[in-house]
Amino acid sequence: MTNPIPFGRELVISSTANPRLKAILALRRRRTREETGQTLVEGYEEIGLALSAGVRPATVYVCEQLFSPAGRAGSQDIGHQSDLLARLRDDRVEVVHLSRQVFEKASYREGPDGLLAVVDEVDRPLADLRVEGPDHLTLLSQGVEKPGNLGAMLRTADAAGVDAVVAADPVTDWGNPNVVRASKGTVFALPVASATTAEALAWLAANDVRLVVTTPETDLLHTDVDYTGRVAIAVGSEKHGADQTLLDAATHRVRIPMHGKANSLNVAASAAIVLYEAVRQRSR
């Protein structure tokens, strides 16, 4: 094993047996994330958004061989990784250099761009989420299993101007690297919390938030409900949908019309459709 050596004031790691690499790989496990209170953020765009949301990484791992000098990936303008690295140095974030071989082992995505940060997790108690103003909009996901779906819902929620996202009885955690990746880093920009379904329903009731739940078992279309005022839009798990407890608590149960042979939509797509109906109504 080769030990890290100074690179100016920064370290260089070229061995895949280095303990630092093992610590990075360990953060892919939920148990390690819960024990350390940390998670991984990879990529220029995701790290940049986290920084804009006030996140300060504990360490950033870089491989400048993977940087794009033109600030582009194919036809996409991704920005200059070197500029972001300078910003991190200005903030006195620890910078560790990895060889290409080590970075590619540490990376959890295809086509890494040479930036990987260790940051604090973002989950917070539900009681800490504030419901302010007459038009508060919450997205509630119950038992969503796939990190990619949870991340995609976060990205949509951010774009739609949602005020909070609550995971009820979550199967995955907010710090799952695939949640972070699929959310494009918006998990750091949105107020998020985890709770049991009972706790989430009590929180909504205490804050006078109406609950609209998506389900195929209703005749009411999602376009026939008023989404103005304080509203929570809820979606259930990929396999089973919303459970009876959530359905019984709903102010309205709504369905999205299906005209093909499939009898259901991807849960992230369902959330997006109903959220943007709320956006449409609120923009009148």
TrEMBL record:
<dbReference type="GO" id="GO:0003723">
    <property type="term" value="F:RNA binding"/>
</dbReference>
<dbReference type="InterPro" id="IPR029028">
    <property type="entry name" value="Alpha/beta_knot_MTases"/>
</dbReference>
<dbReference type="InterPro" id="IPR051259">
    <property type="entry name" value="rRNA_Methyltransferase"/>
</dbReference>
<feature type="domain" description="tRNA/rRNA methyltransferase SpoU type">
    <location>
        <begin position="137"/>
        <end position="276"/>
    </location>
</feature>
<feature type="domain" description="MRM3-like substrate binding">
    <location>
        <begin position="18"/>
        <end position="117"/>
    </location>
</feature>
<keyword id="KW-0489">Methyltransferase</keyword>
<comment type="similarity">
    <text>Belongs to the class IV-like SAM-binding methyltransferase superfamily. RNA methyltransferase TrmH family.</text>
</comment>
<dbReference type="GO" id="GO:0032259">
    <property type="term" value="P:methylation"/>
</dbReference>
<protein>
    <submittedName>
        <fullName>TrmH family RNA methyltransferase</fullName>
    </submittedName>
</protein>
<dbReference type="InterPro" id="IPR029026">
    <property type="entry name" value="tRNA_m1G_MTases_N"/>
</dbReference>
<dbReference type="InterPro" id="IPR001537">
    <property type="entry name" value="SpoU_MeTrfase"/>
</dbReference>
<dbReference type="Pfam" id="PF00588">
    <property type="entry name" value="SpoU_methylase"/>
</dbReference>
<keyword id="KW-0808">Transferase</keyword>
<dbReference type="GO" id="GO:0008173">
    <property type="term" value="F:RNA methyltransferase activity"/>
</dbReference>
<dbReference type="InterPro" id="IPR053888">
    <property type="entry name" value="MRM3-like_sub_bind"/>
</dbReference>
<dbReference type="InterPro" id="IPR029064">
    <property type="entry name" value="Ribosomal_eL30-like_sf"/>
</dbReference>
<dbReference type="GO" id="GO:0006396">
    <property type="term" value="P:RNA processing"/>
</dbReference>
<dbReference type="Pfam" id="PF22435">
    <property type="entry name" value="MRM3-like_sub_bind"/>
</dbReference>
